[in-house]
Prior knowledge:
Blueprint: E1 5-11, H1 25-31, H2 34-40, E2 44-50, H3 68-85, E3 90-95, H4 100-114, E4 119-124, H5 145-149, E5 170-175, H6 180-186, E6 192-195, H7 196-202, H8 205-217, E7 221-227, H9 249-262, E8 265-271, H10 282-294, H11 305-308
Parallel strand pairs: 1-2, 1-3, 3-8, 4-5, 4-7, 5-6, 7-8
Helix pairs in contact: 3-4, 8-9, 9-10
Amino acid sequence: xxxRTCILIGAPVDSGKARTGCLxxxxxxxxxxxxEALGDLGHAVTxxxxxxxxxxxxxxxxxxIHQPETCxxxxxxxxxxxxxxxxxxxxxxxxxxxxxxLGSVLGVARHAARTERKQYVLWLDAHTxxxxxxxxxxxxxxxxxxxxxxxxxxxxxxxxxxxxxxxEQICFLGLRSVxxxxxxRLQQTPARYHDMRHIDEHGIARPLxxxxxEVAHENGLLHVSLDVDFLDPxxxxxxxxxxxxxxxxxEAHLVMEMISDSGLLTSLDxxxxxxxxxxxxxxxxxMVDLAASALxxxxxxxxxxxxxRERSPA
Length: 314
């Protein structure tokens, strides 16, 4: 893979849901060796530290929304950082809960519009995150990013979405927990959505290849948003929204290796890592390994220790 300039941007967003702990995510990814893993692949890596949210007020959001001022402030701060980083390299947003993507996708979409290119989004998640502030029963804004960046109504007080992403430029992979209202609304759109049954029946490679082929054909920019709950909680437990039956480790690496092969990746979210729920850093290491796969690491480049050992004399 051609060496890239990777820009790490910590976004310890912990306001998008009631259960806390994701604010520790960016530092857990650093401790797990993300910078070193990308550097070992030949990439230039800059760590810009952790962002803080802008000051913000709410205007007209429903009363049950959790920490709306903080989420609006994070959206402004992250969008600005994304827009500034895109011309300089490949920003990697270290989360933080998935409300982070309200800002990261908004910012990269602004850059895409300025460069007159289409912005595509690959959403690796158990959930569609297609609620609006009016439809979310929980009031948790980590379930709303794709409604926001596609220009759905109801996000009063948030930065205006001047360049909404068309639904046909979004692909969902790994769905297995979708509210009835979200499902009904999503089925009326041209978005690509692939739940785990579809993946079980047809595999994960074909729908992803079809999507990547379109991005390449359109010379589009590709933002990948990787939520810990895309993965099966059996080996990635550090998430507050565990849903059994997620992608296996091999499926997840295949997705990342295909993204790497395509050469299309222009920005990346690593979200919903809650170290408080982890098992000795296990999930953080998985996320680092997957990010490395997306940026050029191959499984056969990392032989197991058993294959490295010299045979003892008979």
